[in-house]
Amino acid sequence: MAACEFESLEKSLESHLPEAELAEVKRVLYGKETEKLDLPVCAVEAASERDFELKGYRFEAAPEQLRPPRRIRVGLIQHRIVLPTDAPILDQVTAMHSRLGEVVEVAAMCGVNMVCFQETWTMPFAFCTREKEPWTEFAESVEEGSTTRFCQELAKKYNMVVVSPILEREGLHSTLWNTAVVISNSGHVLGKSRKNHIPRVGDFNESTYYMEGDTGHTVFQTQFGKIAVNICYGRHHPLNWFMYSMNGAEIIFNPSATVGALSEPMWPIEARNAAIANHCFTCAINRVGTEHFKSEFTSGDGKQAHHDFGHFYGSSYVAAPDGSRTPGLSRTRDGLLVVEMDLNLNRQISDKWSFKMTGRYAEYAEELTKAVRHDFKPMIVKE
Amino acid sequence: MAACEFESLEKSLESHLPEAELAEVKRVLYGKETEKLDLPVCAVEAASERDFELKGYRFEAAPEQLRPPRRIRVGLIQHRIVLPTDAPILDQVTAMHSRLGEVVEVAAMCGVNMVCFQETWTMPFAFCTREKEPWTEFAESVEEGSTTRFCQELAKKYNMVVVSPILEREGLHSTLWNTAVVISNSGHVLGKSRKNHIPRVGDFNESTYYMEGDTGHTVFQTQFGKIAVNICYGRHHPLNWFMYSMNGAEIIFNPSATVGALSEPMWPIEARNAAIANHCFTCAINRVGTEHFKSEFTSGDGKQAHHDFGHFYGSSYVAAPDGSRTPGLSRTRDGLLVVEMDLNLNRQISDKWSFKMTGRYAEYAEELTKAVRHDFKPMIVKE
């Protein structure tokens, strides 16, 4: 069975395991079962017509006496590119806008308050080629680009916060960044969050195109909760998640683009660990499909030059602070994952596990400050 | 199916999934397949006679031109208590010594260079009771306790590093600590590592008995590699793993005692995330069985007083820096997990993924230093 034919872990388990064992397997793998969300018939039908997967789940919190529930609905969208990578750039971008427009419309039918797209969603993930042209032409202004304008329209139309990760061109100095634009449900650009950690691994030649982000660990206070965006490779860095959480994030999005051979076994681990460790929700989003490029390129692995990056395996999911998670979207299809979460769960789990209180952060601040100095003496005991 | 009857995730998957799908499911769940280790017949027979599970796996690294492989074998031991919790203390400790002695002998037959026992391995995990007596009588001196002497004998006899997590009584001030004693293969006490983070969750009333450790993030340079010990609840704190790694740890042991209802879905996530994030091996060890106490106690959950803590689910495993992991030991039986690892893999994966280089630690040191101040202003953007 080729990796790109394997539809999803959950489907395999559900097809073959006897019921009692399935319940135990799921408990160990996913934690407390995430209830399925009833989605409106019109949404289910539209998703089917528009040929994308639609799944919905709910994370509940316990009722409290002094606070009402803070239930919101988040939408994660994963998709393949629409046109071939050698189609005219404007056509590619327009086709992607159009595709996402029809998915976001379904998200709106499902009552989604906040939607996040995948990393550099308007373009193929062309950084494997190391060609500057034509790919840097996909870069857009955060404030005035057509993609931001498109997202502002969606935000206003559907009263929805939109997180739109793009390739950014900062106009004054013509610098490029890998940036998530955060648009309020009023349609205003709340701000941007640039990718903090840039990979140099396999075909991920992104350091050829842009540098480490300079926006720190900004958190955005939206009407529906405090959110942050940890882009792609930043999920491998526990300190990155942690610092967003230290700044108050209740939901951390992780828009990504990653392929099976490289990272798939790590995918279910890292965002979920971050949700557990930081008493927050995390939302991991990955693109799907295989993208073919006209020019061949090598992957630094001694193998022959080739024209594609491998299979982007989708599998987008949401993890909760109690260690539970939703099943993933498909490994092969466009999809919308709608997740209702009661943000009260974060504080409830914090009160239960108390990682922020038992974390001894002041001591780590001291230790880390020492550890980054050139004269750092590691604490190593020898016989 | 009751949680304590479910033997292991792997067994369920292997019994029911068709071969081709099983391969994909295992790839997604466990990463690159960990080869089974051929263990000597005498060891397999002895384990069977002595009624404990014996499993062996191997993590390989690529050959290098300038460095020979650094293959070592690590043994993880999980076990239930031997005598009832109301037996005389000395009898309980002696019975546990005797039980571990016969498991370590099998580890020696398997060529194990380094063994680690579970948290406070000489005693029941009695901290749920909140009774001081008789449990504090299990505490021993790191330097002169009978358990350390017992481990020193094992270490010399088998030329094996022994990590022995005990309840420590520091003699001068009669203070208690949750401490791992690290004994060199020469039989010398290399030093100790005290539990850095103390839980206050569910039945884990450990903060009633001992305080946060004061030994920092000490790493022990043994003949077989640089090791560190992150005890139990410390695995929920990514900074704890990280700081051991910053001090040079190649293998981080996580001797634990944890129960199904509380933590089981988090168990496969946290130590494995630490191996990935820190380019090192991690070894998670949990006790097995249900321990009954004479006095009843409550669990702070509104439920009736009762006499046991719940089921300790074993499931000890080793995770590698490439994101792969071994299957777990059983959820219900005593067991020895023998893992051969080539420590060269750590640097190879670091060269591939480069988290330590892309980690921007100097910036985190500054941010964290600010974040722990009382006048910290979180970076929150509002509309």
Automatic annotation (TrEMBL), chains A, B:
Gene3D superfamilies: Carbon-nitrogen hydrolase. The keyword Hydrolase applies. One of its GO terms (cellular component) is cytoplasm. Keywords: Cytoplasm, Hydrolase, Phosphoprotein. The keyword Coiled coil does not apply. Pathway: Amino-acid biosynthesis; beta-alanine biosynthesis. InterPro entries: Aliph_Amidase/BUP, C-N_Hydrolase, C-N_Hydrolase_sf. CDD domains: ML_beta-AS (cd07587). GO terms for biological process: beta-alanine biosynthetic process via 3-ureidopropionate. Residues 72-343 form the CN hydrolase domain. Its EC number is 3.5.1.6. It holds the Pfam family CN_hydrolase. It comes from the Eukaryota. It is found in: Cytoplasm. Its main location: cytoplasm. GO terms for molecular function: beta-ureidopropionase activity. It is an enzyme of class 3 (hydrolase). Belongs to the carbon-nitrogen hydrolase superfamily. BUP family. Catalyzes a late step in pyrimidine degradation. Converts N-carbamoyl-beta-alanine (3-ureidopropanoate) into beta-alanine, ammonia and carbon dioxide. Likewise, converts N-carbamoyl-beta-aminoisobutyrate (3-ureidoisobutyrate) into beta-aminoisobutyrate, ammonia and carbon dioxide. Homodimer, homotetramer, homooctamer; can also form higher homooligomers. This is Beta-ureidopropionase.
